């Protein structure tokens, strides 16, 4: 009692009734039209997924269970007075739709900490990965290996009843969320440092252990940055590649490990999560190319034009749904203004904000010229010495587990079916309309 699992168990009948009511009342209503353009164009604008954890408004940005990012700062507890919200509180909010009490947050921290250890063979697999295997590939490998202990896969094998699917899904989800900081830290320490990971301390919270194991725990500010980072990247409604992949693969009743590993393959794409790596690489390249740590706005504009002339995108700018500056960008900018306003890299990131939107607008085809979450995260991490851009998307992945796996628990609790949209050939489309 009092645990996250107990609370979810209480909420399930209500949510099942709500879904039934939705079907009865609105089952035959149209959510949007589907045009040929949409089928060709990545299904942009198709309202085709049910996803309860968060909703993205094109103008306002993301709301998590109804709360905007500024509102999260008001309602979620923080570890430092007036500081960043605690990731465990975010997990509770995403899973239940309810703001947790401090006691509930503490119980979740304890629960997660009791699940954090890795099987030895997974550590060995990571130790045997070559250093030049991309950290995201190593993450997928480790998550797939953790699948050995999937409670859902075993329960399914043993014939668990449909109505109980959510429970082993929940166990796998919490186990995986708990283990990801150590997986990520091991990858980081192996690839970029001496391979040694600081010991896990069961008395500390999730973000504090994560920053310790990465090797940055002596800085309270970095730990606060981890809290912010882990909260901001947790979910971005259901249609983005990592969320949709988890849903799609999970809908075949693949277990949470397999579903999440697949999602990490999607997050590793440069148009999605890898953009945070690309942003930093691109800025470092610009600074080197221009031979100054403080490029002027004119120099930055010139460099942007060159990037576009080469047929490349400006990483960190644009979005498939958003049409304004990403509030996740704003939250990171606020963190920078509070803690590192004189950092030269931050100055450049700020200058980009003044230069890039105008240039992208002039192209005439970019639907959103404003920065997204990935335009800012690298400069914050760099400030504290975490300069290895190839690692950034792994941290994004740790956070993304909170949202996509919580939704997967609900997919099982609500009995959502296997996904199977209909596809068309060019010829069949022609025949339909000629
Ligand atoms: N720089 C240059 N061109 C861009 C651009 C950018 N930042 N953003 C969009 N465009 C171009 C597109 O490439 C497309 O060109 P085309 O017609 O010649 O193919 C045109 O503008 C229309 O695209 P648009 O409808 O605005 O954008 P999409 O919905 O197709 O794609 C992404 C959205 C995010 C993929 C796109 O804006 C992009 O490539 N941005 C850079 C990469 C990035 O930052 N990704 C991270 C997004 C996100 F926050 C995340 O998932 O982490």
From TrEMBL:
A Gene Ontology biological process term: tricarboxylic acid cycle
InterPro entries recorded: Citrate_synth-like_lrg_a-sub, Citrate_synth-like_sm_a-sub, Citrate_synthase, Citrate_synthase_AS, Citrate_synthase_euk, Citrate_synthase_sf
MF GO annotations: acyltransferase activity, acyl groups converted into alkyl on transfer
Keywords noted in UniProt: Transferase
Coiled coil: none
PROSITE patterns linked: CITRATE_SYNTHASE
Pfam families associated with the record: Citrate_synt
Gene Ontology cellular component list: mitochondrial matrix
NAD among keywords: no
Transferase found in the keyword field: yes
Residues annotated as catalytic: 272, 319, 374
Family: Belongs to the citrate synthase family.
The protein's name: Citrate synthase
Lineage of the species this protein comes from: Eukaryota, Fungi, Fungi incertae sedis, Zoopagomycota, Kickxellomycotina
């Amino acid at each position: 009692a009092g645990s996250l699992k107990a609370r979810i168990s209480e909420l399930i009948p209500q949510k099942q009734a709500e879904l039934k009511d939705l079907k009865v009342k609105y089952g035959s209503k149209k959510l949007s039209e589907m045009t040929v353009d949409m089928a060709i164009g990545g299904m942009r604008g198709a309202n085709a997924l049910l996803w309860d954890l968060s909703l993205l408004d094109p103008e306002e940005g993301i709301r998590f269970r109804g709360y905007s990012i500024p509102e999260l700062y008001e309602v979620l507890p923080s570890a430092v007075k007036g500081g960043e919200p605690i990731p465990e509180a975010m997990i509770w909010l995403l899973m239940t739709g309810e703001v947790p009490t401090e006691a509930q947050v503490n119980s979740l921290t304890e629960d997660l900490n009791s699940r954090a250890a890795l099987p030895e063979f997974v550590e060995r697999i990571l130790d045997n990965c070559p250093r030049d295997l991309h950290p995201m590939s190593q993450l997928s490998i480790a998550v797939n290996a953790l699948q050995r202990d999937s409670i859902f896969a075993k329960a399914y094998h043993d014939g668990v009843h449909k109505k109980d699917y959510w429970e082993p899904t929940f166990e796998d989800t919490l186990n995986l969320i708990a283990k990801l900081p150590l997986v990520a830290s091991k990858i980081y320490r192996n690839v970029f440092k001496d391979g040694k990971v600081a010991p896990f301390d069961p008395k500390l919270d999730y973000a504090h252990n994560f920053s310790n194991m990465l090797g940055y725990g002596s800085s309270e500010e970095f730990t606060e940055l981890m809290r912010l980072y882990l909260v901001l990247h947790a979910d971005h409604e259901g249609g983005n590649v990592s969320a949709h992949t988890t849903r799609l693969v999970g809908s075949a009743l693949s277990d949470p490990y397999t579903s999440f590993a697949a999602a990490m393959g999607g997050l590793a794409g440069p148009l999605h999560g890898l953009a945070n790596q690309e942003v930093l690489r691109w800025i470092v390249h610009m600074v080197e190319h221009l031979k100054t740590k403080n490029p002027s706005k004119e120099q930055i504009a010139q460099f942007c034009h060159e990037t576009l002339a080469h047929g490349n995108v400006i990483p960190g700018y644009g979005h498939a749904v958003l049409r304004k500056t990403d509030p996740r960008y704003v939250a990171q900018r606020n963190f920078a203004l509070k803690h590192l306003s004189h950092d030269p890299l931050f100055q450049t990131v700020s200058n980009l904000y003044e230069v890039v939107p105008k240039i992208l607008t002039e192209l005439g085809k970019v639907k959103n010229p404003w920065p997204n979450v990935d335009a800012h995260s690298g400069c914050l991490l760099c400030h504290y010495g975490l300069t290895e851009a190839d690692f950034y998307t792994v941290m994004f992945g740790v956070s993304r587990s909170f949202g996509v796996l919580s939704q997967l628990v609900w997919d099982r609790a609500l009995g959502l079916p296997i996904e199977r949209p209909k596809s068309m050939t060019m010829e069949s489309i022609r025949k339909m309309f000629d």
